[in-house]
């Protein structure tokens, strides 16, 4: 069983759509990260959360500690948002990763 | 601009060769990590280090070793490369406590032939 589960695995959206990617985890955590990986491999850390909600531009990340669940939302999606989005959690000195959600935004 | 730099973007090596992947960070981070990423398996932790000369095995350490002689540099070593070690290798760093954000390098795509 994976400690971090993401859904969906693949997502195709039309430009302008509102997108939600979900992450559930089974361990106690001190922080949850949302990462973005573009074709070619480079990874960027989008958010680090330990409670509540964070917003950066068109991206919003929420976390519910009691339910062990986080969501990443993209408003007014754009083709440049096409990437793999990875949920990662830190539990003590251990790190666990979801397998990623591959997002394609079509013009 | 803070950076994690991996020495090679693409690397092709022969089976049985000793391979060194180098990672350098300029943020004075205590933690450094080596991951490999394979289709359908996501990111898997190979080794991490929380201090100079300290190392801890991750999920898949077999066939790998690491070296951290200086705080800013963390090397991944494949003692005798095999074809099943063909993968994308990613280095990352973070602070030990507080500010848990990761910074990743741009990755090294290693092909073992």
Structure notes:
The complex is a heterodimer of chains A (about 110) and B (about 110). Chain A is an all-beta fold and about 110 residues long. Helix content of chain A is about 0%, strand content about 60%. Chain A has strands spanning about 5, 10-15, 20-25, 30-35, 45-50, 50-55, 60-65, 70-75, 85-90, 95, 100-105. In chain A, strands 2, 4, 5, 9, 10 and 11 form a six-stranded mixed sheet that branches. Chain B is an all-beta fold and about 110 residues long. Chain B has strands at about 5, 10-15, 20-25, 30-40, 40-50, 55, 65-70, 75-80, 85-95, 105, 110. In chain B, the strands form two sheets. In chain B, strands 2, 4, 5, 6, 9, 10 and 11 form a seven-stranded mixed sheet that branches. Chain B has a four-stranded antiparallel sheet with strand order 1-3-8-7, with no helix packed on it. In chain B, a hairpin with an 8-residue loop joins β9 and β10 (about 105). The interface of A and B includes residues 40, 45, 48 and 95 of A.
For the biggest sheet of chain B, the summary is: 7 strands, mixed
What's the tally of helices of chain A? 0
Task: Tally the helices of chain B.
Answer: 0
Ranges of chain B where pLDDT stays below 50 over 5 or more residues in a row are none
Characterize the quaternary organization of these chains.
Answer: heterodimer
Q: Show unreliable segments of chain A.
A: none
Mean pLDDT of chain B: 89
- What is Rg of chain B? 13 Å
Main sheet summary of chain A: 6 strands, mixed
> In one word, what is the shape of chain A?
globular
- Taken in chain order, the helices and strands of chain B follow as EEEEEEEEEEE
Helix percent band of chain B: under 10%
**Gap between N and C termini of chain B, in Å?**
36 Å
Number of strands of chain B: 11
Mean pLDDT of chain A: 90
**Annotation, overall tally of beta strands of chain A:** 11
Overall spatial form of chain B: globular
